[in-house]
């Protein structure tokens, strides 16, 4: 599929026109109509805070839950709102009754924040973390499945697996992984932070015990809107990170799962309430709706990857079937470990300060290796990646790139 022309679509975003923004994957970017819808909700909230928060919010959440569940192909009663996927991962992990000797299985491509949560709960319980080492470059999804299954043991209580990996941008064969682990009696917590809006989802068919996704990334909702989906029979022990009024509610008209997660205290509900607007707006931007949005972004990511591989003389580090709207290329030149995950690579700084290109470069897995990761969203076009390729060529005399 040829990427659709998108020059006119850029007008729907307020991104700095002087910056070539190739990092949608980190925090997303919210279109103007969705921002406007959120502002209307904020105005409504502030006109009568008690009315919205105490009387209307539950019904409003139920309406949003219905719309979002339809998009996810899930039952509304199995979906709750959280600020971000990391919060959902913490909620599931901290609801587990781990014992000494238990294991939680992760991959070495996992998101750092979620890995930290796994380390926290296992250390506290005297349990351990088992790490599946997934190769990168990778030649086939089969390698991923084999690595995960090889690391699973009789002690594995839960697997925390990314749907789309954050550093390497790989779309993992999550349906196969979930099915294979369930056959072994192991449930999977899928960190689908990048899933909704990048790939088509059918959570009912997937059958994962737990699936969390950010809406503020590829659905382009306001920051602070995400969901947690829990299979019905697993919901009872799952508690939110914040225990609030729902903990001793005696209601019988809805599950404690909904009651507790829907009220974690006074928070801004407007990011979640704006989800239907984002679903409708983004789905209206191309004639083929969300299917065309996903296909167009993937086609552009693949084209962009080819442009950069040719510029740098790199082979494809992953097959096309494992690429969505993110693509990562391995670079060299990292000399030291960074003191913080938020430390910025000098090459990334040079790209931004000299060329006004916003693109992440990760230290992964360890020096001297690092990764350049690009994103493709409707406001991007081929020229953005050609500009990046030219900049990398010019900087290759100062920085080790390949």
Q: SSE layout and pairings?
A:
Layout: E1 20-21, H1 24-27, H2 32-47, H3 49-72, E2 79-82, H4 85-94, E3 103-107, H5 112-125, E4 128-132, H6 141-151, E5 156-162, H7 174-183, E6 187-191, H8 203-206, E7 210-214, E8 226-230, H9 256-262, H10 270-273, H11 275-284, H12 289-312, E9 326-332, H13 346-355, E10 357-358, E11 361-363, E12 369-375, H14 382-395
Parallel strand pairs: 1-10, 3-4, 3-5, 5-6, 6-7
Antiparallel strand pairs: 2-8, 7-8, 9-12, 11-12
Helix pairs in contact: 2-3, 4-5, 12-14, 13-14
The top level CATH class name of the largest domain? Alpha Beta
Strand order of the largest sheet: 2-8-7-6-5-3-4
Give the CATH topology of the largest domain.
Aspartate Aminotransferase, domain 2
Shape: globular
Helix content: 40-55%
Tally the helices.
14
What's the gyration radius in Å?
A: 21 Å
Mean pLDDT: 96
Measure the end-to-end span. 30 Å
Report the count of strand segments: 12
CATH architecture classification of the largest domain: 3-Layer(aba) Sandwich
Spans of 5+ residues with little confidence (pLDDT < 50)? 1-6
Biggest sheet, open or closed, and with what strands and sense? 7 strands, mixed
Structural domain tally: 2
Structural class: alpha/beta
* Helix-strand string: EHHHEHEHEHEHEHEEHHHHEHEEEH
Percent of residues in beta strands:
5-15%
CATH superfamily of the largest domain: Type I PLP-dependent aspartate aminotransferase-like (Major domain)
């Amino acid at each position: 599929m040829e990427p659709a022309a998108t020059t006119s679509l850029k007008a729907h975003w307020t991104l700095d026109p002087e910056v070539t923004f190739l990092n949608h994957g980190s925090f997303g970017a919210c279109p103007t109509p969705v921002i406007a819808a959120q502002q209307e909700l904020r105005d409504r909230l502030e006109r009568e805070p008690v009315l919205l928060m105490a009387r209307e919010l539950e019904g409003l959440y139920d309406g949003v839950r219905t719309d979002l569940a339809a998009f996810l192909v899930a039952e509304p009663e199995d979906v709750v709102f959280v600020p971000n996927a990391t919060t959902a991962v913490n909620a599931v992990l901290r609801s587990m009754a781990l014992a000494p000797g238990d294991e939680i299985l992760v991959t070495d491509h996992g998101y750092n924040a979620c890995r930290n949560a796994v380390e926290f709960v296992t250390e506290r319980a005297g349990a351990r973390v088992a790490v599946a080492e997934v190769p990168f470059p990778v030649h086939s999804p089969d390698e991923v499945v084999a690595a995960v299954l090889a690391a699973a043991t009789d002690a594995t209580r839960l697997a925390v697996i990314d749907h789309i990996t954050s550093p390497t941008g790989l779309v993992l064969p999550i349906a196969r992984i979930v099915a294979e682990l369930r056959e072994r009696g192991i449930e999977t917590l899928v960190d689908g932070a990048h899933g909704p809006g990048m790939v088509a989802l059918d959570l009912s068919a997937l059958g994962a015990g737990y699936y969390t996704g950010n809406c503020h990334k590829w659905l382009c909702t306001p920051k602070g809107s995400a969901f947690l989906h829990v299979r019905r029979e697993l919901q009872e022990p799952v508690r939110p990170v914040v225990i609030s009024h729902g903990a001793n509610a005696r209601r019988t008209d809805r599950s404690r799962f909904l009651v507790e997660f829907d009220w974690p205290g006074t928070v801004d509900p407007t990011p979640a309430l704006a989800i239907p607007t984002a679903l409708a707006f983004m789905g209206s931007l191309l004639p083929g709706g969300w299917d065309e949005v996903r296909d167009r972004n993937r086609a552009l990511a693949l084209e962009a990857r080819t442009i950069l591989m040719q510029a740098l003389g790199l082979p494809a580090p992953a097959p096309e079937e494992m690429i969505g709207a993110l693509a990562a290329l391995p670079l060299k030149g990292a000399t030291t470990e960074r003191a913080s995950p938020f430390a910025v690579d000098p090459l990334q700084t040079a790209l931004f300060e000299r060329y006004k290109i916003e693109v992440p470069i990760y230290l992964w897995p360890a020096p001297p290796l690092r990764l350049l990761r690009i994103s493709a969203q409707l406001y991007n076009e081929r020229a953005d990646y050609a500009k990046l390729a030219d900049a990398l060529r010019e900087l290759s005399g100062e920085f080790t790139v390949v």
